[in-house]
Model the fold of this input.
Amino acid sequence: MEVCLKASFGDFIAGNPNCKKLKGDPDAEAIFGILSKDGNIIAMIDMLESGKPALAACVKEVERYADSRESPTFDLNVDFSKQAVGRMVKTIVEPFGYESHIQREMPKSLESKYFTSAHFYRKTGEATMKVVKAIVEIEG
Done:
């Protein structure tokens, strides 16, 4: 039986050769870690299913992290860094059967400090992972 795991930072680097210089970057790895938390993946997929960009689910958390860094190694004021975050999202949602579809404006209601646009994704049906939500009784 083959075990499928969530995308890793290594998968992101391997799938995006132009981001190779981020290998070993602690802030880039931390942001990937934020994006790939189970709760954020579920929230990103919920966003996608409601026709919104995946990044909208956790953009504030990513921005708070970036703003908390005194001397960031991954600066969200730089276009390359913002594009890398978009590529991270793509790497994370692809195993769930989503592919990049179109780039549009980020919802203004989010009041994102760094991101003015983000990619919208569409379901391809070719998934190796899925989100399962369940209601269970609590014993006690």
The two ends are 35 Å apart (CA to CA). The chain has one domain: 9-123.
